[in-house]
Write a structure and sequence with these properties.
With 252 residues, this protein is an alpha/beta fold. The chain has 8 helices and 14 strands. It folds into 2 domains: 8-115 and 211-246, Periplasmic binding protein-like II (D-Maltodextrin-Binding Protein, domain 2), CATH 3.40.190.10; 117-208, D-Maltodextrin-Binding Protein, domain 2 (3-Layer(aba) Sandwich), CATH 3.40.190.10. The protein has helices at 56-68, 79-87, 102-105, 148-155, 166-174, 185-195, 221-235, 237-246, and strands at 8-9, 22-24, 30-38, 41-42, 46-49, 52-54, 70-76, 93-99, 108-110, 115-124, 140-144, 159-163, 180-184, 199-216. The strands form 2 sheets. Strands 1, 2, 3, 7, 8, 9, 10, 11, 12, 13 and 14 form an 11-stranded mixed sheet that branches. Strands 4-5-6 form a 3-stranded antiparallel sheet. The longest helix is centred in the C-terminal third of the chain and has 15 residues, at 221-235. Residues 33-249 form the Solute-binding protein family 3/N-terminal domain. One of its GO terms (molecular function) is ligand-gated monoatomic ion channel activity. InterPro entries: Iontro_rcpt_C (IPR001320), SBP_3_CS (IPR018313), Solute-binding_3/MltF_N (IPR001638). Residues 33-248 form the Ionotropic glutamate receptor C-terminal domain.
Amino acid sequence: MKKSLTAVLAIGASFGVLAACGTETDSGSEEAVITVGTEATYPPFTYKDKGEITGYDIDVLNEAAERAGYTVEYEPMDFKGLVPALDAERIDMIANQMSITPEREEKYAFSTPYAVSGAQVIVASDNEDIQGIDDLDGKDVGSTQGSVYAQLAEEAGAEVKFYKGANQVLQDLQVGRLDAALNDRLFILTELEKTGYDVKAVGDVFNKSEAGYMTRQDSDVLDKLDDALAEMQEDGTMAEIGEKYFGEDISQ
């Protein structure tokens, strides 16, 4: 795999560089810069390791961006702030397991999918009453604001309480402030045991979804990026990154 680009944290919105612009290098040539918003608290997709933003979403984007001739600058923020930042043009793209939904596609553009997954219910380890999504009616369910999981919980009749990140949800779930939570089956597969919280996954995986990098519809970044993602599928790089984080190819 090619060497990943160094993730540079954007200091603030005033220092962000729009994708349509370029920055001049020491040699005088111009290179395109993409400012990317990410939660950086959602392992193994996007998180910080020794101060640097990394994860499956980040590794895939870094490799694709390098092949497409882009430099990536990351701006970490709460999940609920990602879409408003994109709307306000403070960032050019979101890399945060953004599910491709018809509602989002009405307003935003998505890259070729780079991850396929689904949702699953999480409860406290001693909870025997909730066995899946059909048991969430009238229950208190934790989620991050604006996520697909919040919408799924509401559709199941749950009372949704919003949190900044998955760890806060699991903490309140463990101590009984919540009845259940919903999350990505890949997060559950790789990270739930590592958290140390006394919780478990129940029921079948449902609502199969694809994740893509999300931009505004007027962005031209995706043309080259999609070509690079397709190339990574063909040469096995995408599968290699999936194996690194999940032990399997999750891109299809």
